[in-house]
Automatic annotation (TrEMBL):
GO MF annotations in UniProt: aminoacyltransferase activity
Presence of the UniProt keyword RNA-binding in the record: no
Protein family per UniProt: Belongs to the FemABX family.
Alphabetized SUPFAM superfamilies for the sequence: Acyl-CoA N-acyltransferases (Nat)
InterPro entries: Acyl_CoA_acyltransferase (IPR016181), FEMABX (IPR003447), PG_Glycine_Bridge_Synth (IPR050644)
Pfam entry (one): FemAB
Single biological process term from Gene Ontology: cell wall organization
Origin species: Streptomyces phaeofaciens
Name under which the protein is recorded: Peptidoglycan bridge formation protein FemAB
Domain of life: Bacteria
Keyword tags: Acyltransferase, Cell shape, Cell wall biogenesis/degradation, Peptidoglycan synthesis, Transferase
Transferase as UniProt keyword: yes
Amino acid sequence: MSLRVQSLTRDEHLAFVAARPSASHMQTPAWGEVKPDWRAESVGWFDERGVLAGAGLVLLRPLPKLRRYLAYLPEGPLVDWSAPDLVERWLKPMLAHLRARGAFSVKMGPPVVVRRWSADAVKAAVADPDAHRLRDAEPTSYAPGAAEVADRLRRAGWRQSEPGGEDGFAAGQPRYVFQVPFAGRSLEEIHGGLNQQWRRNIKKAEKAGVKVVRGGPEDLPAFYTLYTETAARDRFIPRPLSYFERMWTALNAEHPDRMRLYLAHHDGDVLAAATMLTVGEHVWYSYGASTARRREVQPNNAMQWRMMCDAHELGAAVYDLRGITDTLEDANHLLGLLRFKVGTGGEAVEYLGEWDFPLNRPLHKAFELYMARR
C-alpha cells in the first residue's frame, strides 16, 4: 500500500527532523525562509495508521509568467531509500502531490552514499598522472544498496543530473564531499588523524597568536568582506550579504545553535571566517572566507581545528567539509582546496547526486534551455 503524502505543519516537520540522528540543513523548515525566491512547503508521508513515516522540504520555483513550478527537494527527502518498494510506496505519491501543486518537474537529491575514498586513496589519485577524476580512482569502500536505488530510479523514469562542469560540482548541491568521521573517536584520535602539515600549522598559528572566536550577527559584515575577496580569488559569484543575514535569522530562530560564525583574529585583524551548521549529529563547515594577507600565520587551520573541537563537544558523528572537486588535474584551481581538506585525514564521499522527473516534458525541456542560456 502506498503512503499518503500531504502538507505538514512546521512543528510536525521539525519534530520529525529532531528525532533523526542526521538530516541535511536544507531539509529543515527554516531553509525555506533562506530562499525567498522559492515558495516552500513541508510535506509528510503517512502510513495507513496515520503515523508520520517520512518528511521533506519542497522548494517551488515559479516559471516566468506561468503558474507552474519546478519542485526541488535539496539533499532530500527524508524517506526510507532502502525500501524495495521505494518507487511505488514513496515516490509515486510524492509526484502526484507535487503535480497537484502545479509542478512541471521535480528535482531531488537522495541522501544516499555511493562510495568512499580514504585520505590516502585521494592523495594517491592526485599523485597519479593517469588519474584525471576522482570517480575513476579505486574507492576504499562501496555503500551497499546504492546501485540498486539508482537502478530503481532509472527504471521509474528519473534521470540523473550529470556532475556538471569541468570541476565536478553539480549545478545544485555537491555530489562529492569531504567528511571527517567523529563517531566513537576521541579528540586526540581526531587530532592524530590530521596530517603532519596540518598539525604543524595549528601549532604555528598558536605560537603566532592567532585567536579564533565565535561571532554574532554583528560580525557578518566582517565575514562578508573576506568572503567577497575569496570569491574574486577562487572565481565564483558571491551571494549577497542579505543571504547570510537571512540564514542567521531563520536557522537560529528554529534552533538557537543551528548556525555559528567563527573568526580568526591576528593583531587586531580578521584573517579568516567561516559559518558552521548543525542538525542532530551532523555538523557542516558551510561557508569559508579568508584574506591573502598574512597567510604565514595559518589562520585557516587554526579556525578549522577550533570548529572541529566544538563539533566534537556537540557530539557530532561527522564533520562535513562540504563540496570537493572531482577533477584531479593540476591546472584545476580547486585542487588546492581538495588538498587542504584531505589534510584532515577524513574521506571523500560520493552521494547519488541529483535526479529529475519531468512531469510535463515540453515545459521541462523549455526550462532546461532557459537555464542553459543564463
